User: Fold this.
Amino acid sequence: MKKIDVLVIGSGVAGLTLAIKMAERHPDKKVCVLTKTHKEESNTRYAQGGVAAVWNFETDSFEKHIADTLDAGDDLCDKNAVEIVITEGPKRVKELIEWGTRFDKNIQQYDLGREGGHSENRVLHYKDLTGWEIQRALNEKAQSYPNLEYYDHYFAIDLITQHHLGRQVTRLTPDVKCFGAYVLNSRNKEIETFLSKVTVIATGGAGQVYKTTTNPSIATGDGMAMAYRAMARMENMEFVQFHPTSLFNPAIENPAFLVSEAVRGFGAILKTPEGDEFMEKYDPRKSLAPRDIVARAIDNEMKMRGQDFMSLDCRHLEKDAFIAHFPTIYEKCISLGIDPMKDLIPVVPAAHYICGGVKTNEMGRTSVKNLYACGECSCTGLHGANRLASNSLLEGLVFAERIVQDISQCIDSVKFQNGISDWDATGTTDPKELVLITQSIKELKEIMSSYVGIVRTNIRAKRAFARLHLLYQETERLYTSTTISPQLCELRNLITVAYLITKSAAMRKESRGLHFTTDFPHKYPFLEMTLM
Assistant:
């Protein structure tokens, strides 16, 4: 049994920023970061486009960035959360730069990109590897604090609450508290107890719930599922953002390769495989419309035409500048026999980001006491019904700071909980057939991609519920009878997240942002059934 002052589950931009700041300001406190693979692997690492922040106040302003965010969110953003992130964001980005993060420059000034939904150039980037660069800088910075400990290959199974003291805990139980987490050491297969005064979930997204996703294989919604089982409030889970332009590859990659929105901001144009533009039919901003609009447009064109992909035209762009800005994208295309300077790039929408998650307040607190959530697994109210491009890294930075401020005020009054038992695996045996788990994951992805994707209906949701219930029953029987493995836990978490997405989608009787249903194709602003 380990005793930790601040337990951070997840090592992306949100978790690491928070851990670094906590360790720096409180050298007497023990800060622990858990990551289920190695510390370099996270959703953050795969972010290509950049981080949006008002930088050039001569042409840009907080008011413009706020207006763009509210517009993209389709009237469901929490305006207070939007104002907090946009106004505090530039200071947090400057801290990243002070910690060693590099962003591209034009001579002395930063090279600010523009992406869909933005009215100005405000996206700081490092080529097309911005997330990788931020992750690199944070990992190096974290090594300088002796009170910050990394635990690689440690998989968080469940949050510890009063339930583990033998009490009945339901969604109506007042004052639910978190006391830490049960964690599987993937190397020796032992389940360890991490007691903590404060626990922070920073586990990223859940793109792996779909068959095609730009998210890495670790994005299985672990934090969201754990928080839901701990009776935390969830919000806006129906709003799943599909990135309009993942690279179409008949071989099917996991994750799908992302062709950054910054490419369209650089001047690339969406076209049919025959070379005809089509976005003017859907939005006056054409290829630079917000992601929900572009993804639905591509999906609609593919279905109408019976084609497997649409195309991105970069042939008119200056070659040297394109390669300088997007070296990874260029090299990937060339490796598949596609020359962006001569050929149209085939693209398809792919699951990319969940705008909902664990409901938090303006300081990152969840409805469970001593439990915080930060980054994609949280729902702060910033994104509403659709995330504005490159606002996600900014959100993680801003709320990491706010959570540290809040923890600093209360941590000395929090005590470790006594009476927590170690994990009991009595009566379980090693699974005889891992194919049961892998096949269930495949079935889950098919269910969600077919029935709860870009376009939804009541009939599809009903069918998804029925199939998910069968998977849930089968998986729970495995969970109670076999020894714990990361694969089994991921399956269990994916089923939970799939259920939450489907349930939320079925509850919303309107089309809003990323949620489009043919049964209710119009928007009704008075209907906001988002909490559960």
In short: The chain has three domains: 2-238+355-413, 259-348, 435-517. Residues 452 and 511 are 13 Å apart (CA to CA). The two ends are 33 Å apart (CA to CA).
